[in-house]
Amino acid sequence: MALPARKNSARRRATAAHPPKHAEAAASTPAPSRRSTPVIDFKAVEKRYDVGAIGLDQASFSVQRGEFVFLVGSTGSGKSTIMRLLIKELEPTGGSIAVAGRDLEEITRRRVPYYRRNIGVVFQDFKLLPNRTVYDNVAYALQVTGGSRKDIRAKVPDILRLTGLSTKLHNYPDQLSGGEQQRVAIARAFVNHPPLLLADEPTGNLDPETSIGIMQLLYRINKTGTTVLVATHDHQMVNKMRRRVIELSRGRIVRDEATGLYARDESTREFAARLRNDPPQTPDVVGTPDAIRAAAARERRIDGDGAVGGERRPVQAATTTTPADA
Ligand SMILES: Nc1ncnc2c1ncn2[C@@H]1O[C@H](COP(=O)(O)OP(=O)(O)OP(=O)(O)O)[C@@H](O)[C@H]1O
C-alpha cells in the first residue's frame, strides 16, 4: 500500500478541522491538506490486553497530512499502544484504524512489512545496530526495502547531511553521544522519506539542550510535508513547540487542542490573577497583535538558529482565541 504522495498542497493553510489558534504563528508550518483523506483515522478504537489491562478505550481522532501532533498523558495512558497499533504490532480489540484511507484490518500479516515501509519509527532507546557504522545503519534501512546500491549512494549522504551527521559516517554507535545516536535513528527512519513518522519518547534519554536539537530535526522533517506523531512526557518541549496536542488518560482521549500546552496547568498566581481579572503578567497576551507577532517570532526561532524560543506562556495561550478575536 502506498500512502498518498506529499504535495505542495501540504503547505496550504490549516484545515477547518484543526485550525491553528494563531493564524500568523502557523504561517511557516506545513498546513494539513484540506481535502485529502486523513493520514491517521482512529474510530472508537479499543485495545484490551489479554491480562485485562485497557490500552485504549473508545479512542477517536484523525490526523491530516502534514500535521505535527504530540501525544501526551501519564505513564500507562495509552500513547505507545497507539504507536504499536499504527505499525500493526498490535491489533485493536474494537473500532477501526485507517492509515491513508486503508483499513489496517485488511492488511494481511504477509503484507505488513510492505505497509511499514510507509512509516518511519523512532524509539526512545534508538535501536541501532551496534556493530555497524552510522553509514551502514542508515544504508541498512534502504537495503531491507530493496534499495539499489545507486539509491543507497545517493540517499544516505543526503540524509546524513540533513541530520547533521556528515562527519560521523564511520563511527559506531558506541562512539556517538545520545543525541547523535538519536539523529542516526531519525536518519534511518526518514531515509525512505516516509509520509508518516512516529516517534515514541524520542527525547526520553536526552538532556534538554540535546532534546531541542532532536525536536528541531523532527520539525524540519515535518516541514518537508511528512506527518509527524510524537509521544512524549517532555512538558517543556510540548509547551515550546506549540503544536497540536492530544492527551490520553487511561486509554481515553481527554483533550485535543490545535496548539496545546503539555498540561492545562496554571500557577496559583496566574489562577488568582485570572479570577481577579488582573491584566496578564507578560506582554505575550493571547490574541493581541503583540502576542501574535511574538508567537510568529518563536516559530521562526524554532526553525532558524537552533534555539526553540519562548518561555512558559500563560495558560490562556493554549485556548481558543484567534487573531479575529483580538
Ligand atoms: N503487552 C501488554 N500487556 C498487558 N498490558 C499492557 C501491555 N502493553 C501495555 N499495557 C497496558 O496498557 C496500558 C497503556 O500502556 P501504554 O504502554 O500504551 O502507555 P503509555 O502511555 O505509552 O505509557 P508510558 O508513558 O509509560 O510509555 C497500561 O495500563 C499498560 O500497563
UniProtKB/TrEMBL annotation:
Instruction: Give every ABC transporter domain span.
Output: 40-275
Membrane topology per record? Peripheral membrane protein
Low complexity compositional bias, start-end: 25-37
Keywords of the record: ATP-binding, Cell cycle, Cell division, Cell membrane, Membrane, Nucleotide-binding
Q: Where is the composition biased (Basic and acidic residues)?
A: 296-314
Primary location recorded for the protein, binned into one broad class: membrane
User: Assembly state and interactors?
Assistant: Homodimer. Forms a membrane-associated complex with FtsX.
InterPro entries, alphabetized: AAA+_ATPase, ABC_transporter-like_ATP-bd, ABC_transporter-like_CS, ABC_transpr_LolD-like, Cell_div_FtsE, P-loop_NTPase
Write down the PANTHER family for this protein, in alphabetical order: CELL DIVISION ATP-BINDING PROTEIN FTSE, IMPORT ATP-BINDING PROTEIN
Positions with biased composition (Polar residues): 317-326
Q: Annotated region Disordered: where?
A: 1-37, 276-326
Recorded superkingdom: Bacteria
What biological-process GO terms show up in the record? cell division
List the subcellular locations: Cell membrane
Cell division listed as a keyword: yes
Please verify whether the record's keywords include Magnesium: no
UniProt lists the gene as ftsE
**Which family is it part of?**
Belongs to the ABC transporter superfamily.
Q: Which organism is it from?
A: Conexibacter arvalis
Q: What is this protein called?
A: Cell division ATP-binding protein FtsE
Q: Which GO terms describe its cellular component?
A: plasma membrane
Task: Recall the GO molecular function terms of this protein's record.
Answer: ATP binding; ATP hydrolysis activity; transmembrane transporter activity
What is the annotated role of this protein in its UniProt record?
A: Part of the ABC transporter FtsEX involved in cellular division. Has ATPase activity.
